[in-house]
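Collaborator request, handled under Task 6.
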Amino acid sequence: MRSYITRVAGLVDGYIYARVHGEPEELYNAALHLIRAGGKRLRPVIVVATAEALGEEAEKALPFAAAVELVHNFTLVHDDIMDRDDFRRGVPTVHKLWGEPLAITAGDLLYAKAFEALTDARDKGVPAERVAKAVRVLAQASSTVAEGQAMDMMFEEEEYVDVEDYLKMIYKKTGALFEASAVLGGLVATSDENILSSLASYGKSLGIAFQIRDDILGIAGEESELGKPIYSDIREGKKTLPILYALSKLEGGAREKLEKVLGNRDAGREELEEAAQLIKEAGGIEYAEGLAHRYVEQALAALKVLPENEYKEMLEELARFAVSRTR
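C-alpha cells returned to the collaborator:
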C-alpha cells in the first residue's frame, strides 16, 4: 500500500505544482506550503484507486484527484487559523509564517484552483456530463464541510452534545470530502448510479472512521508522530467522541476536573495530561475505537460493487489503515 500511495502522491503533487503558480509569488508559496510539507494524500489516492478499480488509467483521474487535495488543503489552512494552531505536518502553519490575511487569501486560492483542476478532466477524456456532475459533487461536499466546521465550533459552546449530533458533525466536516473522493473516482469511469451510490457509502463510512481515529490520536497519540500538538481538542473544548463518552461516565470530582480543563485555553501541559488520563480511564478511547471499526466494516461492505482486482484491495487496505494509523 505504501508504494502505491507514494506513486499516486507523486503524480498528484506534480499535477498540482504544474498548475498552481502565478504572481505574486508570495501568495503561491503560502498556498503550496502545506502541500510541500507532506501529508497522507488519502483523498486523492481514493480517487485514483477507485478509477483504476473500474478499469481506467491513473492519468485520467489526476484532475479530480488534484481537486480534492486542493480543497482539503484549503480547509486545513483556514482550520489552523480558527484553531490557533502553530504547527501542521511538522512545520509552522501558514498563518504563523505569512500572517492571517495572506493565509486566508492562500486558502481561497486553493479552493478556486480546485475547480480549475476539475475542468481539466475534459482534456483527459472524461465526458462533459460527468465533469459537470463532478463539479456539483465537489461543490456540495465543500458546502457540507463548511456546515460541519460551523457545527464543530458551535458545539464548543454547548454544555451537552449527544453522539448522534457528533456523528452528523464529523460526517459533514470530514466524511463528506472522503465521500466526494470516492464518487469522483467513480465518475472518471462511469455514470452508473448504483456504483456511484455504493462508492459514496464507502467514502462516507471511511471518512467517519478516519475522523474518529483523528479524535483518538488528539488525546492518545504521540506528538512527535502527529506533527501537530496533541490535547488541542481538550484545550479548545471540542466535543469529540472520547470526550463525550468520558463526560457521560465520569462523576463527582473526576467529572468536575475534566470540565474545568475543557475549553480552558490557558490550561497548562500537566492539566491537559491529567484530563487526557481521565478520558482514557473512563473508557473513552476504547469506545471510540470500537465505533470506528464498525464504520470500517460498513465501508468494506460497500466495495462489493467493484470488480475483484488489486485496486479494490487497495481501497480495502485504506479503510483498515484509517483506524490503525498513528499519525
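The cover message to the collaborator said: "The chain has one domain: 2-322. The chain has a mean pLDDT of 94. Please let us know whether this matches your experimental observations."
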